[in-house]
Amino acid sequence: MLIPLAILCLKKKQPAFNKPVVIYLWTALAINVTIDAIWKLKTILPHPYNTNNYLYNIHSIIRVLLFSSFFIKLNQQFLSKTKRIAPYIFLGFVLINFIFYQNFFDYGQLSSRLLSFEAVIMMFYCMQYYLFKITDDEEPSKKQPDFWIVTGLGIYYTVNFFIFLLYNELTLRLHNFAISLWNIHNFTYTILCVFIAKGLYETNE
Amino acid sequence: MKQTNDDIRLLLFMGIAVMLSLFASILLIFIFFQRKKYQYQQKIQRLHQTQQNQLIEAAVRSEETERHRIAEELHDEVGAILSASKLHLQGVKINVIDKNNEPRYEKGQELLDMAIKQVRGISHNLHSSILKEFGLNEAIRHFVEKITNNDLIFITTDLDDSYTTQANENDISIYRMVQELMNNILKHARPKKIHITSTYNHDALNISIFHNGKGLSHAQYEELKFNKQGLGLKAIQTRIILLKGEVSFNHKPEGYYINISIPRTITI
């Protein structure tokens, strides 16, 4: 997380479409620090407060909303309505899922369903971005900050989709394997951060 | 139970592998299309550039043709009429009674001589016959000789005689640029001293015009060349584009330098 934030300090002026990414970076830093702090103080904190699973849910919701905003702000005239509706569909799904099926503040596990649905939405955004760029007539410029951010997201979600989808099942059946799998998630998250850093660095402003 | 766990593992790794390969394929297709698009745009840009060069070339050529035509008309038509007039005027006999008209007669003859000389000068200037017959260096020297006035301005040349013409059209363009720049210097800079040098190597012909008047900086040139009134500078820029050369304006403590560099391999 510190890599893109360091780049952000060097290149403070970012184009409008990168604003949600910048907000995401600071929010994600705060959430991740809190997740780590809770994990480290697990034994000190009282019982219902010594879990950080709900923070992953919050992180997921914020991520979808901010990156949806990023894709909408790119102003690509392709599937515009669908792109605008997608975050509302996601929010509808979140409400239905956590009202009727799962507990948002589940002590034992994070929501596999939420994370995998997030991955589906984000992969849709990435695919439509590439499709638009392929069909677009505009001359490709040498610096494409948006390309790096989208590719980082693409790598992160394609690798993690099945991890998210099966994570609850794996924690029940293969607990240690599930924990080791999270290292793959962390590695791809680092890749995402590096790509975001590259995207922020390539900006022309 | 173990079989199910293995199945989940397999499903997970297969899923990740399939997703990754799908994503990699899309990314490769994307990069391939972007590259194609980039190459296509480059090609279009090159075609556009070629077309623009052809237009410039046509404009410069037609300007030269027009100059040539006007020069011939002046020399053959107007010049001939003026010479005939002079002949007729010389045939007129001034009597003793017409003594009062003698000064007018002599003034008329003087003006006629001046007109013939001027027409001849303009015609030669437009025609650039010296350039065609004796080459670029001789044409520049001749031009300098014509405009030098030792009392007011001191103009010297140091031209590289190893220069050999590759294309006559290029020389005309170079000569016209020197002419235009010299006219501009005389008109606006009001220098006391001008020195023209040229060096010729395997890469390019470099011409440098130094003067100690009030010259232009390169930034001013860049600004003025797009100015509607700066027709002369625009013409220089057009010819520079045509010759794929470079022109730069520099200011040093001793004065101003205008450097023209024309690549050797250029043929119009």
TrEMBL record, chain B:
| Keywords for this protein | ATP-binding, Kinase, Membrane, Nucleotide-binding, Phosphoprotein, Transferase, Transmembrane, Transmembrane helix, Two-component regulatory system
List the SUPFAM superfamilies hit by this protein, alphabetically: ATPase domain of HSP90 chaperone/DNA topoisomerase II/histidine kinase
Question: Out of the domains of life, which is the source?
Answer: Bacteria
Q: Tell me the InterPro entries matching this sequence.
A: HATPase_C_sf, HATPase_dom, His_kinase_dom, Sensor_HK_TwoCompSys, Sig_transdc_His_kin_sub3_dim/P
Q: Any transmembrane segments, and where? A: 12-33
Q: What GO molecular function terms would the record report?
A: ATP binding; phosphorelay sensor kinase activity; protein dimerization activity
Instruction: List the residue ranges forming a coiled coil, or say none.
Output: none
Q: One GO CC term of this entry? A: membrane
Q: Which residues form the Histidine kinase domain?
A: 69-266
Q: Which reaction does it catalyse?
A: ATP + protein L-histidine = ADP + protein N-phospho-L-histidine
One Pfam entry name: HisKA_3
EC number(s) given by UniProt: 2.7.13.3
Extract the PANTHER family matched here: NITRATE/NITRITE SENSOR PROTEIN NARX-RELATED (PTHR24421), NITRATE_NITRITE SENSOR PROTEIN NARQ (PTHR24421:SF10)
Q: Under which name does UniProt file this protein?
A: histidine kinase
Q: Which organism is it from?
A: Mucilaginibacter gossypii
